[in-house]
Every structure is written in C-alpha cells, then in structure tokens.
Design goal:
1-phosphatidylinositol-4-phosphate 5-kinase activity; PInositol-4-P-4/5-kinase_core; ATP-binding; ATP binding; alpha+beta; transferase; Phosphatidylinositol Phosphate Kinase II Beta; Phosphatidylinositol Phosphate Kinase Iibeta, Chain: A, domain 2; 3-stranded antiparallel sheet
C-alpha cells in the first residue's frame, strides 16, 4: 500500500507526511471555496462535471496563495461548481464547510480499513476525508452526472454524501482525496457495527477483525447475534425499505456490484450502565455532539424525515 511510517514515527502517504498532507488539504480547500464564492450561483451544466481547477502553492507564497512551511505542492479541485451544488443540497453553507475542515487541525483516524487508505475526520466530527486510488477517483468523476440526477430525485438517499473531490500533487505524486459525511461521530459510542451485503458466503468477520477494539461484523454474525432482527415502527420500516430499493436501483444502473449497508448500533441501556446511571433514568449526556451543520447528517435522521412525510414504497411493478 501507499501508507508508511517515517523515521520519526509519523504516518506517510506516498512519501508525504501526514502533517504536510493535512496542511496542504486545508490550504487548498480554503483557497478553492473562497474563489468559488466570487463566482455567481447558476444551474449546473453538463460540462461542470468535467472541470478541473488547479492552483500552485509555492512554499514562499504567491500573489494568489499564502506562504507555508511545507514543500511546494499543487492543489486540484474536481467539478467545483457541481460539488458546490451538492453541498447546498445537503444544507451545508460555504462558511460552515470551511470552518469545519480548516479552522482546527484534522484528526487522523488509526483504523484505515482493508484499503490502506488514510482517513481524517474534521475536529467537529462532521466530515471524513479519505485518500482514494486513481481508479476510484476516476470512477467517482464518471458517476457525478448520475449522482446529481439521483440526488435531485431522492434527496434522502443512504448512498455516501460526497462534498468534494481534490488532488494534492506533492513530490511528484498525486494524492487524491474525497470529502464525505461522517456517519459515526466519535462522541457517541457504537456498541455493535455490521457490514451487511445480504449474502452468507464468507460473510463472517475474521479473527483478525474480531480482535480489534471496535470490530465490524458481517451478515452471519448479525444473524447469530440478533436472530430476531432490529425492530422499527412500520412507517420507519417502510421508509427504510423504499430508500434501500431506490438506492440499489441506482447502484445497479451504474453497474456497481460491490456494496453493503453499514449498520451501527448504540445501545442506550448499555451506555447508561457504562456511565453508572440506573437503566431507564433520564440522563443528560455532557458529551453530546454539537448541533450538526448538514441536513440529515445521519442515515436514520434522513429515514425519520421520510417516515414523518409518510413515505410509502413505490416500485415500477406496483
């Protein structure tokens, strides 16, 4: 993989230190969001999905960029106007996006997953930044027009919410990153986490995965741990099924096969016991996450919104 560790013990990605990469990301996003705010708002056009803007950041600074103490780098922004529209659709204002990502240092997450990607989370827990391979970034770019169409038709989608696609060119290497919604805030403990595909072949978590502090289990584990399943009220259940059906149709239309549903469970009784509070007692959590900036930032809030609206399942064969 591209991840490594240098002589000081710091994480590197494609030979760039994590601190230099974090700094470059924040400088680049600050510049690109700022320059975008000077451009008038307009409808998204087909060519907007294929625009790539590029700016050079010499360490001594330039008339467009500030001086910095990293090596020179170039920052590329993919489809800036299209992603501005996506952020707007999700209720994220430009100043909130900037504040979340650039006002405090990004936090590196230790669990990189099987992909060998590097993950960062914004200090307010709103956004995840993930390094992606060239093929993944290229694929996401190709998906953008279809993704745009899907969001317009189905704003309560459970597909990942993409807020920006960027590339840091440093030391002759391209480091591509995507900014997404953070589904699992660090301030709320998830007692169980499942990656569900709806199949049973080789769908049990490995021993290596089970040995982790917060393992991600699979379908066979779910069937064993929660044989009766999870109980939802009927409106919530219908809204969830409808959303999953619509999302699967979209993935099918993109010819994507390798996808799964991430289910994370916070057990309130267990959480109260862990904090020494009698079960069933009203308890104000002093570590409650700050109010979120994104509309429907978690999957269930989106589904609850749909359920409140009285969503019903509508498929073509009804």
């Amino acid at each position: 993989g591209h991840r490594g560790v240098d002589s000081t013990g710091e994480t590197t990605y494609k030979k760039t230190t994590s601190s230099a990469l974090k700094g470059a990301i924040q400088l680049g996003i600050t510049h690109t969001v700022g320059s975008l705010s000077t451009k008038p708002e307009r409808d998204v056009l087909m060519q907007d999905f294929y625009v790539v803007e590029s700016i050079f950041f010499p360490s001594e600074g330039s008339n467009l960029t500030p001086a910095h103490h990293y090596n020179d780098f170039r920052f590329k922004t993919y489809a800036p106007v299209a992603f501005r529209y996506f952020r707007e659709l999700f209720g994220i204002r430009p100043d909130d996006y900037l504040y979340s990502l650039c006002s405090e240092p990004l936090i590196e997450l230790s669990n990189s997953g099987a992909s060998g990607s590097l993950f960062y989370v914004s200090s307010d827990d709103e956004f995840i930044i993930k390094t992606v391979q060239h093929k993944e970034a290229e694929f996401l770019q190709k998906l953008l027009p279809g993704y745009y169409m899907n969001l317009n038709q189905n704003p309560r989608t459970l597909l990942p919410k993409f807020y920006g696609l960027y590339c840091v060119q440093a030391g002759g290497k391209n480091i591509r990153i995507v900014v997404m919604n953070n589904l699992l805030p660090r301030s709320v403990k998830m007692h169980l986490k499942y990656d569900l595909k709806g199949s049973t072949y080789k769908r049990r978590a490995s021993q290596k995965e089970r040995d982790k502090v917060f393992p991600t289990y699979k379908d066979l584990d779910f069937m064993q741990d929660i044989p009766d399943g999870l109980f939802l009220d009927s409106d919530m259940y219908n809204a969830l099924c409808k959303t999953l059906q619509r999302d699967c149709l979209v993935l099918q239309s993109f010819k994507i096969m390798d996808y799964s549903l991430l289910v994370a469970i916070h057990n309130m009784d267990l959480a109260q016991r862990e904090q020494g509070v009698p079960t069933g007692t009203a308890h104000a959590d002093t570590r409650r996450p700050a109010p979120q900036k994104a509309l429907y930032s978690t999957a269930m809030e989106s589904i609850q919104g749909e359920a409140r609206r009285g969503g019903t399942i509508e498929t073509d064969d009804q």
